[in-house]
Write a structure and sequence with these properties.
mainly beta, 145 residues, 0% helix, Porin, single chain, 7 strands
Length: 145
């Protein structure tokens, strides 16, 4: 679900909330298959830049940042996430449009860093990280108030 606010010609501020439930399974040839329930909730804020707002089919690029709540089995975690996307609003009337949207969500699920400095001011660093990436495509009706 999106709630959108006009921020000027071709600029929109979006508040995005998304919920998905699924069942994931692991099939390891040396072990019995394991299945668990998975829930992913996104809460993000960001914006869209509409490339040509006067056209009936107005394409846009989008970026949002926020948090992701992951529930896997009985455990849960809240992590930083962001999304990059593109789409188009196809105007049906002056107050409604069909929104076609595609987004790549990235959730940082684990990260670590080590930095060491000597007395001469020389620093070295090492970092590791992992991310959960998901693509969503959606179509919906946008109503303007």
């Amino acid at each position: 679900m999106f709630v959108t606010f006009d921020r000027g010609r071709g600029r929109k501020l979006d508040v995005l909330v998304s919920h998905e439930q699924t069942r994931a399974s692991r099939r390891d040839p040396s072990e019995e298959p394991v299945a668990t329930d998975v829930t992913i909730d996104y809460a993000q804020i960001g914006g869209r830049y509409i490339i040509n707002p006067e056209r009936r089919a107005a394409p846009y690029v989008a970026m949002t940042i926020g948090g992701t709540r992951l529930v896997i089995g009985s455990g849960s975690a809240l992590r930083f996430s962001y999304a990059l996307g593109a789409g188009a609003d196809v105007r049906l009337t002056s107050a409604t449009s069909l929104r076609l949207d595609g987004r790549f969500y990235t959730t940082l699920v684990e990260a670590g860093a080590q930095i060491g400095c000597n007395s001469g001011g020389t620093c070295t660093g090492f970092g590791i990280g992992s991310a959960l990436t998901q693509f969503t495509a959606s179509a919906g009706l946008a109503v303007r108030f």
